[in-house]
Structures are given as C-alpha cells and as structure tokens.
Amino acid sequence: MIKHLFFAAGLTLATQAVAQDKPVLTVYTYDSFVADWGPGPAVEKAFEATCDCDLQFVAAGDGAALLSRLQLEGARSDADVLLGIDTNLTARARETGLFAPLAAQPNNLDLPVDWSDDTFVPFDWGYFAFVYDTTRMETPPTSFDALIKAEDIKVVIQDPRSSTPGLGLLMWVKTAYPDAAQTIWEGLAPRIVTVTKGWSEAYGLFLDGEADMVLSYTTSPAYHIIAEDDATKAAASFEEGHYMQIEVAAKLAATDQPELADAFLTFVTSDAFQGIIPTTNWMYPAKFPLAGLPEGFDQLITPERALILPDSEAAALRDTALAEWLAALSQ
Amino acid sequence: MTWFLVRSAGWASLALVLTLALVTTVAVARFAPAVPVLGPADWAALRFTVGQAVLSAGLSVALAIPLARALARRRFPGRAVLVALMGAPFILPAIVAVFGLLAVWGRAGIVSQGLDILGLPPVSIYGPVGVVLAHVFFNLPLATRIILQGWLSIPQEQFRLAAMLSMTRRDVARHLERPMLRAVVPGAALVIFLLCLSSFAVALALGGGPRATTIELAIYQAVRFEFDLPKAAALAVIQVMLCLGAATLTLSVARPVDTAPGLDRVVERWDAQGGRASDATLITVAAVFLTLPLAMVVWRGVFGLFDMPPTIWRALATSLLIALPAAGLAVAMAGALAALILRMGARVPGVARGVEAAAILALAVSPFVMGTGLFLILNPWTDPFAAAIPVTVAVNAVLAMPFGLRVLLPALRDAEATQGRLGRSLGLSGWRLFRVAIWPRIRRAVGFSMGLAAALSMGDLGVITLFAPPGVETLPLAMYRLMGSYRTAGADGAALVLVAAAFALLWLFDRGGRVDDPL
Fold first, then answer.
1. Interface check A227 vs B, CB under 8 A
2. CA–CA gap between residue B361 and residue B358 (Å, rounded)
3. Would you tell me the crossing angle of helices B488-509 and B475-483 to the nearest 10 degrees?
4. Does the CB of A203 have a partner CB in chain B at under 8 Å?
5. Is there a contact between A105 and A130 (Cβ–Cβ < 8 Å)?
6. ipTM more than 0.90?
7. Nearest residue of chain A to residue B227 (CA atoms)
C-alpha cells in the first residue's frame, strides 16, 4: 500500500515536471465555468491544442468576488487573464488599473448592441428575464406593469447587493423607468416572495414551486429543453425590453505571459471557443458558431429591445438605484 | 509537568483564537486605510440582526428546557435514536436546512398542501417569522442537548433522596434543577445568540426582503461587491463588541453548581410520576418539528443520487480529510481551555471568565473577514493555494471549539469537583489521576464534542472558497457548484451525501446518542 502511495506521489511529481516545461497560462474565472459540465474542460482542451502551453483555470467565486480576489492579490497575482465579469463591474475593474489594453479588437461580434472597448473582450451574453412554468401559468405578464397588477403571481428575485442577476434586475428597472424606478419597486414589493443571496437559491425555490416566476435569463429554458428534454419552462417577454448581461475577459497588466494571454483573448471569440458556450454556459455566444446555435435555442423568446447602459453610467447609477430598491422593499 | 503542558496548550489555543478573530480583522482594516462610513441601511441591519438573534436564542432555550426535562425523566423505545437524530438539524449546512424547512413550511410545502385540501390559503413564513423559525429549528436541538447533559449531570441518587424526603416537584425544581439550569442555560443561550448573530444564508433566503438584512450580509457586500475593506472591518468590530457584551452579560449570570459525587446509576424518577401526557406531547411535537424537514432532505436526495457527478466522492474524501483533524484539534483546544479556565477559576475568577469569553470570539467574527484577513496575512509569505487544507483545518477547528467548550467545561468541572478531589485524596496525580478519575467521566462529553466538531466542519463552506486550489473542492462547495449550474437534482443528492456523512460522524463519536448508559 505504502509503495503504491509513493508510486502515485512520484507520478504526480513527474506529470508536474512535464507540465512545467510548457508555459502556464493562469485564467481566473467563476465557479460554474470550471465545473466538469461547464465550458472549462472543453475550452482547456481546445486551446491547448493550439498553443503548446498549459492552460489552468482557477475558480474564485462569482463575478464580483473574482474582481475582489484580484484586488486582494494585487501585483503578486499569478493570474494572466480574468474571464467572467460583466459590464456592471467593468468600470470598477478599469479603475483598479490591474488590466492591460487588448492587443487586437474582436470583429464581427453577434451582440444585439454596438460594442467597442479597448480592454475587455466579450465572450458571451444573455438577457435577464422572468422564467415561469407553462404548466402552472398560461398567460405570463408582458410588462413590469402587468406583473404589478397580477395579484396572484409570486416571484423570487436575488439581492442586488450579493448577486449578479439581482444587480441586473436593478439596472433593468432603472433603465426602463429612469424616473419611476422606486414606484415600480413599490408596486413589485407585494409580488416578491423573498430575495435570495444568489441565483442558485432563487432558481431552486422556483423549481420547488415556492414562486411562480424567478429572475433568470431568456436562455434558461434552453437548459431544460436540451439537457432534460423538458419544454415546460419559458421566459416571459416584457414590452419594456430586456436588460442584457455581457460577460467579458481581459488581460492582467502584471501577467508574465503577455503573448499567451493575447493569444487566449483572441481565441475567446474564435469558433472553437464560441461553439462550446451555448450548451455548457447556457448563454448566447458573442459570435454565433458557424454551425449555428444548437437546436432548442430557436424556441427561446427574442426581446424586441435590448437594454444596457454603458459601464460608466451603470456604475454611476448603481447607488441611487440601490437606495430606491432598499427604500421600496423595506416598507 | 502535566499541568504545565495543559496550561501552555490552553494559552496557545487562546492565542490561535485571538489571531483568527482579531488579527485578521486588523489585517483587513489596514489593507486600505480609510474612515469607514456606515449608512442608515447598516444601522437597520444591526437592529434587525440583534433583534432576531435575541428572539431566536430566547425561544430556542425556552423550548429546550421543558424538552430536555421530558427527555431526562422519560424512558421509551427509540429514545437514543431520537436524541441522536435531534443533533442533525444543527449540523445541516444552512442552505440544505432551508430547503428542508420549505418542503414542510413553504408555499408549496406539506403544511400548505394540507391547508389547500381544506380549502385554506397557504401559509407564508417569509419574513422575520421565517428567520426565527429556521433559527429555532437549527438551535433547539443544540440547546436541548446541552441542557439535557446538565440534567443528566445531576447525580441521580439525589432524585432518589428527594423522593425519600417526599419532596414535591416544586421542591425538586428549586433544590436540584434550577441551580443546574442557572449554570447551563446562560452558556447555551450565548452560543445560540452568537450563531444567529452571524447568520447569513438563512436570513437571506427566508427573510422576504431587505428588511431582514443581517450585518453579515453588509459585510459580504462590503468585501465582495464593493471591496470596501475598511467598512467590512468596522462591521466586524461591531460584531466582536456585541459578542463580548453578550458574553460578559451571560457569563456573569451563570453560576456553577457545587455537585456532590454520584454513583452514575440510572434511577427511577419518582418525582416524575405526573406530567406523563404533557411530556409525551412535547417530545412528539418536537420530534416531528425537527425530523420532518430532515426526512424531506433525505427524500429529495435519494432521487438525486443518480444525477451526481463522480467527483462528489472525491469531494467527500477532501471534506473528511479536513473534518477529522479539525475535530481533533477543536476538542484538544476546548479541553486545554476548559482545564485552564477551571484551574484559574479557583484563584483568579475574573481572568478565568475573561478567557471563557475570549474563547468564543471566533464565533462572532464573520467568515468573510476571517478568510480575507488570513489571505492578506498569508499571501506575502506563501501561496494561499498550498496552504488551503491546513488553513481550513485551523479555521474550522477554531469555529467548532466554542461548542466543544460548552459541552466539555461543565463535564470537566463536574469530574474535577467529584472524582478529582477523591482521586487526589487517594494520592493520584498527573496523567494517572486523569486516566483513572477524570477521563471516564468526561468521555461522553469528549465524544459528543468530537462528533459535533467533525460534523460542523463537514458542512462548512467557510474559507475554502477563498483558498481552494484548482481541482480541490469540498463537499459543500461541490454542492453549491451543482446548484449554481441548474443541476438541482445532483445538488439534492450531494446534500444527502453531506448530511449522511456529517450525521455518521456525529453518531460514531457520540455513540448513537446513548447519553445516559452506565459508564
């Protein structure tokens, strides 16, 4: 037994030694990206096939926690690339001075809005939406106003102070109703069963029947259609339009692998990377794969209007929007 | 010589607690020197946090006293199993417990479905009610166990003596039970108050909205969302001060009992001939309240077992690798501190109380602040990934230690006062005194603390989220990751594995809840 252990230890050391001959590219990302069923393993394989390097993903919580982690580590960080914050955080990220400009701009992106940024490259995107169960609800509300008036509907949302979708909804209401956001929230308050810490808890409560609708993404039903062969989940289309989440990647200024990092950021919008995204991250790829979107995505709703604020405006509005949210829901 | 070692271990434990509790806070505060600004929302969070914690602790203890009395004086088949099962809610990871509770009390839960059949509207527990309900569900078992231990520590011959003297139930309560309660209840209430003070996931899932915001959420927001570390540190300091205030208050109320030695026999409780029906009702209601949500967790998990990725088993191994050393360390620290507190209590009671209060400080410090502080302290010296496992073991041990102390301190005090005195008069000392006179009387308490610490460590998400190197995940982390990517069935399965493993550890160390078998 002991002999086997030594053998195993030796083997591990040997593999590490081999791995160390190749340059290592360290990418910090969020938890679900690196999971066995997430995009991580396939992306790693595809990129390593092109680079003769060792791509290592490090999971460090969700988007906001990722950025905090990099700020904690400062210039000492091993990270070469950050992958997985959204445009609500890019303004804060830019201010830290931790990131370097892109070497090459991505082209021909399939985003519903114009995109240009010298530091961040988008890798996927989605629309926030309220998801419901078609067997329990026949006609979903078609606007925030309709949701406020639908007295028999209960929704579960996430806290904007601890969750990315929660913050997305906050910005959604603020963008759709710049001057009446607090009134909208006061109207929504009786519809809200509870406010959870993160997306997982809220979605779990919805699946358990604790709420009729949950704040999630228009692409959420695609998971149920493709992975579970279950077509009973759908997203409600709102007249006001839907707020977007755009997830981005960037190079750390302190990286010791600048060329590899640039190569990876170019790879991020390549067909090899983008083809993996839809059925592993359950979001729209930033550039639609040549083979088209997987079957099932055609059953999703397409919002008529895509809402999103430029990152500096989003950052400036956040505190006001949060204060309105707190005031409306604390009554 | 032995005493010197024990004393050094006691001081070392205290130093470790203070380092993790205070030095980390200082490290966080020093990261970016600035004057923290606390807004009205923070003060509202503070009020809600303290209010619900007082209510939750008060209610848990108030219900635990009659329940512990009923369990102490009744014998029925399945009693040991019930006592063991009652330990389970306490060791459940918060989010698992919340889903179990909602399966019973939620809008689509058993109770609401029953009401629906009767044509009544569903119950809604979201709001402060839900938070307190969940906290009582978590902590009633712990309170009951601590108080039950107190009841069983009353030498049973004294009940026989009381019967011989034809004492009424009121007399028994006044002479035997109330002094014991005064010694045990304040400590139990304090621990529960502190647990509820730093509650986070429960308050957020069941609170119904930002009215039910705790300080812990404000800290999370400051650390993770705003990266306002001075504010996080300021809030952590408020939590520490609340903890110290509560500790001073409760520990000054507590009075240790002067116990006379007993012969460790189970005697018939002649004083308990009345009240049989009310005891039976109480035990049944409590058993249903505590085990039904647990049964729902198991029920949901069974179907999910087939949807789990195989990596769950590796995560289980990692969690065990952390939980077992953490439990050993926690009990060693609690034992050394208990010995130190008792020895000093005889000479300098003020200092002893100070040590006792400081030992539970770790419970008051936010895991986010502790984790971030540790990260800041270790990062310049070593790769935090490399230190992940030892750091998690140390933090989990310090977090579990206060529970061990609450269980071990009364047991050791008792053993010392009775067998210790006798042993010394017979010329025993040092290691032999411990082995012959003390150990048999504290063995059960040690077992229970070990089980509790191991189980708590299993379910803790804690600092591993900041330190986990690529490819290393603990079972709670794996469960959260499953939940975070639509795989709820797999997450339910992982929750069942987690609960089963934690409960198995508690059961093994606690010898199946046989709290009062002859020694």
1. yes
2. 5
3. 160
4. yes
5. no
6. no
7. A68
